[in-house]
Amino acid sequence: MSLVESFNRAPLLLKIALGIAFIGWFFHLLGFATPYWSTAQYFSIIGIDVHFGLWFYCARGCEGYSHVQSWMEATQAFAILGFLAGLAAIVLAVLYVFLEQLRKDIIYIIASLGNLVAAGCIFLAVVIFGSKITTGLSWSFGLSIVGMIFHGVAGVLMGVNRFQNKPQ
Fold first, then answer.
1. Helix or strand run (H / E) with residue 73
2. pTM above 0.85?
3. Which of 49, 50, 113, 157 makes an SS bond possible with 17, Cβ 3.0 to 4.6 Å?
């Protein structure tokens, strides 16, 4: 069976969930990698735009952190776990959709749970960060939240699809 035929045989809800998961992963990737989780607006008065993300901060040039507090390490760890869980979920879902011989129940369940785990890990990352930095939260932080929501929706859609169309 060709890849196109295999794709056409996959349920529509699964294909939608896969697209949503990829969009969520991409949003989290952008938020994860950019240094705009927070901005310090009070420095803008004297002409210094200060902003920082999970990996580096920028004030007249960007630099990596030399030491981070434990709450930032926890945020980084959960953001990484969310990124990896989302990627694994997408890879497994793509394999499930395109390769007929891999249409196994366990692969589908792990892909679905991977999206939910990604959403949960990203949730923990943004909660930890947001509890410590309460003002000046910026667009990178927001992109990770959007990615979290998309992964959660994808996981739920895959679960709904599983009960509507029991996988082979």
1. helix 70-98
2. yes
3. 157
